[in-house]
Specification:
Layout: H1 6-11, E1 15-16, H2 22-27, H3 40-44, H4 46-59, E2 63-65, H5 73-78, H6 83-112, E3 118-123, H7 126-130, H8 144-159, E4 165-171, H9 174-187, E5 192-196, H10 210-219, E6 225-232, H11 236-246, E7 251-256, E8 261-262, E9 267-268, H12 277-287, E10 291-292, H13 300-310
Parallel strand pairs: 1-10, 2-3, 3-4, 4-5, 5-6, 6-7, 7-10
Antiparallel strand pairs: 8-9
Helix pairs in contact: 4-6, 4-13, 8-9, 10-11, 12-13
């Protein structure tokens, strides 16, 4: 099956994703201690989000991910946003990324001979609505039908935007992944990647073996690519190898910057194990990933270093540190 990544793989051999959106908004001075997290800025200062997208494109990202991770109809309604207004918020989020991409392409891409970057519409898990850290365990206490009811309207709306791909990301629950994939298969021809959070080298966050999730993804009609995100970088090489051995679909990997997520304050704890990103991303590609980047607390500087490292010619041998 043709992949939306093919043009990048043909021209450069990899796809470089962007990094964390929320952490860059915080660096710019925004307070995200809010149930809407980064989606709060869609209501307060949309231009700030477009500026972050632009910064990642300048850093070398081939794909930017929209600010819709924690934007849900239910969460916006709790803020007094009507249904029609919420629909406009979702579309605005995609438009911000598309506009940043189009402006980059018009002013800079031709100079750097870059393939036209992609826009991925983020679809966060049910845990993002709960805003209680359950993205990292998946014990929601609701079944597949309730999850489908929750995800369906937002997924269908985002599928009807100019986004190139749907990013079903930070998924901790195998039940949730299957519900989402069924929705994608029934609702749209737009490609979708599915990335899980992982508790260790062998299991996604709800305890399902990674190999089982990858084998399922290999057969699932709604899954275009499968991988891991918002998981410590030190865990990625064995996770990627397991994924690559169990599926012929593209493998996607974009870890966080380390540390523990504190749901009460919407902040990350101290990161003691942040890698040297340029070398680490070569490890991920060597292990079998085709699309790599960063998640929370991985900024434009790291993405720029990743691009430089991945463009170095020659075989990509696993990186080691002295």
């Amino acid at each position: 099956m043709p992949s939306c990544f093919d043009a990048f793989l043909h021209s450069q051999g990899f796809v470089l994703l962007d990094g964390g959106l929320a952490s860059e908004l915080e660096r710019a001075g925004h307070d995200l201690n809010d149930p809407l997290w980064s989606a709060k800025i869609l209501l307060e200062d949309p231009a700030a989000i477009e500026a972050v997208h632009a910064s990642y494109l300048r850093a070398g990202a081939d794909c930017v991910i929209t600010a819709t991770y924690q934007a849900t109809f239910q969460g916006l309604a709790a803020r007094g946003v009507t249904r029609s207004q919420a629909e406009a918020v979702f579309r605005r989020a995609v438009d911000l990324a598309v506009r940043a991409r189009d402006r980059f392409e018009a002013h800079e891409a031709s100079r750097t001979a870059r393939t036209r970057p992609l826009v991925a519409a983020s679809i966060g898990p049910y845990g993002a609505l709960l805003a209680d850290g359950s993205e990292y365990h998946g014990n929601y206490g609701v079944g597949a039908a309730a999850l489908a009811d929750f995800h369906g309207p937002r997924l269908r709306l985002l599928a009807d935007t100019p986004a190139d791909i749907l990013a079903c990301e930070t998924i901790p629950s195998f039940t949730e992944a299957r519900a989402l994939a069924a929705l994608v298969a029934d609702s749209t021809d737009k490609p979708a990647w599915f990335t899980f959070t992982c508790r260790d080298e062998c299991h996604i966050s709800d305890g399902t073996p990674i190999a089982e999730a990858a084998a399922w993804a290999d057969e699932a009609a709604g899954v275009h690519a499968v991988g891991v995100n918002c998981t410590p970088a030190r865990l990625l090489p064995p996770i990627i190898r397991t994924l690559a051995a169990a599926t012929t679909k593209p493998v996607v990997a974009y870890p966080n910057g380390g540390g523990e997520w504190h749901a009460d304050t919407k902040t990350w704890g101290r990161a003691d194990d942040e890698p040297e990103w340029a070398g680490a991303c070569r490890d991920w590609v060597a292990a079998g990933a085709v699309a790599v980047g960063g998640c929370c607390r991985v900024g434009p500087e790291a993405i720029c270093g990743m691009r430089a490292a991945l463009l170095v010619p020659g075989p990509r041998e696993p990186h080691t540190t002295a």
